[in-house]
Amino acid sequence: MALRDTRHRAGMTGAEMAASIQRLSGRRWHQTKVSKLEGGAQWPTEQDIRDWAAAVDADPARLLGFWQRAQAEYETWQDAHRRAGGAGAYQRNLAVFEARQDRIAMFETVIIPGMVQTADYMRALLVNPAGPARGAGVDVDRLVAQRIDRQAVLHDRARRVQVVMLEAALWTLWVPPEVMRGQLDWLAALAVRPGLEVGVVPSAVVVPASPLAGFALYDDVVIIELPLGDQTLSDPGQVAQYEELMAELQGAAVFGGAVGKLTRAAATNLPG
Questions:
Q1: In this structure, which topology does domain 82-268 adopt according to CATH?
Q2: pLDDT one-digit tens code per residue, 12-45
Q3: Beta-sheet strands, E only, within the chain
Q4: Which of 203, 221, 200, 222 has its CA nearest to residue 213?
Q5: CATH 1.10.260.40 residue ranges in the chain?
Q6: Residue 116 and residue 165: Cα distance in Å, rounded?
Q7: What angle, 0 to 180 degrees and rounded to 10, lies between the N-to-C axes of helices 140-150 and 119-127?
Q8: Cβ–Cβ contacts within 10 Å for residue 117, how many?
Q9: CATH 1.10.260.40 matches 2-73
Q10: What is the bridge-based pairing of β-strands 196-201 and 229-233?
């Protein structure tokens, strides 16, 4: 978010930013790289940060400080699973952390958020060759059971749970059609459950701002889900920006029975 802020303060569009960096550095840049770096879909190098600072006439030391702090907090799935207890300990620690939170908010772009996934959907994702458990030596059944245990917060009326996804998550087949059909039915049922806030941003809606990576927002921490691992942000200013982003996404989403209409439309078009 610090990168986006400096670009906005410089009054540049993404295309102008890319062109400026390319002109000053002599390195090839594209507007899509600007979007990926700002959205967290691509991890910047130190040279990227220096080039960015030069393009917006910002203090490189400040941006490098943010980068170094985030880099220290960034961990890959493999790193987390190599620790004592492996993936199971990682899930148990996360469950303990979530149980202490008053508010849990999740957003995803093209995947159903973990808090509302069915066991079959989880399992199919984990055994997917491109899934996060690939090559990590994970006991899939045990990991699925632990993830389902984390969903106990869905039944706790004292805790606020917010889940938002883009409509693309309903149509993207990371799992077999029969698994996706069950997932869509479950999502529709959760959307009308009292006390839960399960929303979908329709594809036809203009989204004020949509990140390229999913994230989980807690009381005072944001965990951004990147392709190779998670990045944790605890800076109050950055957390506040994700609070605003989540509010915008919720404002663009539909809830309740309207979610069921979208899931039924997606289910009707499933192959088989």
A1: Endonuclease; Chain A (3.30.870)
A2: 998 999 999 999 998 889 888 888 787 666 778 8
A3: 75-76, 103-108, 160-166, 196-201, 214-217, 222-226, 229-233
A4: 222
A5: 2-73
A6: 11
A7: 140
A8: 23
A9: yes
A10: unpaired
